[in-house]
Amino acid sequence: MNEARAFVGVTGALLMAGLGGCATSQIVLVGQARPPISPAQVQIYLQPPESPYREIANLSASSRGSLAVTAAAKMDKVVTRLKEAAASVGANGVLLHGVSDQTAAALGAGISTDSSHSPYVHGVGTSVLFSQEAGDGIAIFVEPNQEN
Q1: 85, 101, 117, 121: which has the fewest C-beta neighbours closer than 10 Å?
Q2: What is the dihedral of CA 139, 145, 146, 148, to 10 degrees?
Q3: Do 63 and 19 contact (CB within 8 A), yes or no?
């Protein structure tokens, strides 16, 4: 029974270590940053907008470290992180290049018992494959429409 508890504890610790960690978004400035805005003000564009716009930064983000389980939830997390990154440099839009599935890591753990009184060893093991969504785009500032 103690071996099972130890196994669960070790597996849980490894699982949490695998979920945490590295940066989940990156920003590389290619233009002049603007004052930060709310991520709610950032719009996602699949094609360049018709209004004039300025490129501010190249962005990349992943769902790594999130508790999202489904592919749709992971994709939502990537879009949220892209919007947050764009907002932090004052961009009001993200020209999305794409979102794709990536294998993030495989994690295995096991525990065994050995008794010098028996020729047999008892053990338990498990492994988990982590996948994540990742996306990239360009943070842009779309000029307000100035029609009179």
Answers
A1: 117
A2: 180
A3: no
Name residue 102's amino acid: Q
CA distances (Å), origin 79, targets 14, 58, 101: 27, 14, 13
What gap in Å lies between CA 104 and CA 80, rounded to an integer? 19
Tell me the two tokens of residue 70: 């489904």
Residues (pLDDT < 70) of the chain are: 1-23, 102-108, 110, 112-123, 127-130, 146-148
* Unique residue bearing structure tokens 């429409």: 145
Burial of 74: CB neighbours in 10 Å, binned 0-12, 13-18, 19+: buried
Task: Quote the pTM value.
Answer: 0.67
Q: What is the DSSP code (8-state) at residue 31?
A: S
β strands within 47-120, DSSP E: 53-62, 93-114
